[in-house]
Amino acid sequence: MNLEEFKCKTTAALPESGSVSWQAPSNIALVKYWGKTGVQLPANPSVSFTLDACRTRTELRFSRSAGASDAPAVHVFFEGHLAPEFAPKISKFLGYAVDYQPFLRGLQLEVHTSNSFPHSSGIASSASGLAALALCLTDLERSLLPEMTPEQFRRKASFLARLGSGSAARSIDGGLVLWGAHKGLAGSSDLYAIPYPGQVHPVFERFHDTILLVDKGRKPVSSTAGHGLMHGHPFAEARFAQARSNLDRLKGILRDGDLPAFMEVVETEALSLHAMMLTSHPSYVLMKPETLSILERIREYRAESGQPVCFTLDAGANVHVLYPEAVAKEVYPFIRQELLKYCQQGQHLCDRTGPGAGRIG
Ligand code: PMV
Predict the structure, then answer these.
(1) Residue 319 contacts residue 343 (beta carbons within 8 Å)
(2) Are 319 and 215 in contact (CB under 8 A)?
(3) Fewer CB atoms near the end CB (10 Å): N or C, the chain?
(4) Fold of the domain spanning 4-199
């Protein structure tokens, strides 16, 4: 599909006012997206598990305002309070969205949003937050175009979410999600994410992600700045090639349920992501000493016990501990006894793979 096909061409108009509500989950990448061109077009394809417990709920209220301004005017409310600090990011997103949804022009919008996870947990809410808002916008479009199919709906929502935050494109569908064009994976696109189209062994259908909150502070370097530092990075091309080759490997691993190889690829991806940060110019470190202690202890425990448990990292110090449902009874007590001491006040979130976004109300 090309960009033109994403433009909503209807001349139908929305009613004077109304509202729509959606919730969308967070996701954790197994093969990481790091480096982009244009408006969140990925330098390499990525694949993620959609999470379940970490979600954003968003209600979008709209009314017609006098005078048709270019982009809709917006007020953002977070957990019941006016939150002007979120407005610039949302306004920028709406500025992109209006090119594909001209019916937004001249609207007055209120975005009421809340997260199921603590705001200050260091868990990025941009993926779930922008996905939930993109779903609300797509729902408005569907009210003007009732012939829109469920597949077109989800694709448009993922396309719009991507304009706000790349990883948000992967927070619409459930299970394993693929974003970025890749040879041999039918239907893959840089413009939007799709349910992972390859074969998936049942062991990957119910996976746990225990998120260890090591550092809840603000990141010293934002994801946007980090992506930017991949331009001119001495290892950028090798990194993009590595991600593509890890995705190729993952195809067979996901089909066969090969847990040892899965753990190797997932940990390599996490460490390569941070290696890019360590070696960018200027360089920076998002891991904390506790992050490294956790990684080390997970590897020791795996060697001692033979349990299929591994780690991955986002752009931050927190650690995602991944393991299949079948071993949760053994692995979770290990996490409690041996890893929570590295977390701020022992804080952690118990999440797992989930079914994707849904409409509320
Ligand atoms: O969606 P962004 O622009 O915040 O980028 C996030 C990238 C990582 O979370 C570090 C990796 C990924 O693929 O989700």
Answers:
(1) no
(2) no
(3) C
(4) Ribosomal Protein S5; domain 2 (3.30.230)
Binning pLDDT at 50, 70 and 90, where does residue 329 land?
A: very high
Q: What's the pLDDT at 121?
A: 64
Are 247 and 159 within 8 A, CB to CB? no
Task: For ligand 1, pick from 32, 49, 312 the residue to mutate: most ligand atoms within 8 Å of CB.
Answer: 32
Torsion of CA 75, 79, 84, 88, to 10 degrees: -80
Sign, Cα dihedral of 332, 333, 338, 341 = positive
Distance, in Å, from the CA atom of 76 to the CA atom of 286, rounded to the nearest integer, reads 29
pTM: 0.97
- State the residue for tokens 């950028």: 236
Which residues fall within 8 angstroms of residue 192, CB to CB, at 6 or more apart? 155, 156, 158, 159, 162, 169, 179
Is any atom of ligand 1 closer than 6 Å to the C-beta of 29? yes
Helix ranges restricted to H, the chain: 87-100, 126-144, 150-164, 223-228, 236-256, 259-278, 289-305, 328-334
- In short, whether 312's Cβ falls inside 6 Å of ligand 1 is no
CA 164/CA 340 separation, integer angstroms:
33
Fold for the domain defined by 202-352: Alpha-Beta Plaits (3.30.70)
**59 with 19: CB under 8 angstroms?**
yes
Domain ranges of the chain: 4-199, 202-352
For a mutational test of ligand 1's pocket, the pick from 26, 30, 31, 33, i.e. the residue with the most ligand atoms closer than 8 A to its C-beta, is 33
Task: Give the mean pLDDT of 254-260.
Answer: 98
Q: Which atom of ligand 1 lies closest to the CA of 167?
A: 1
- For residue 3, give both structure tokens: 């960009």
In the numeric block, which tokens belong to residue 91? 């306004």
| Residue 148, H or E segment | none
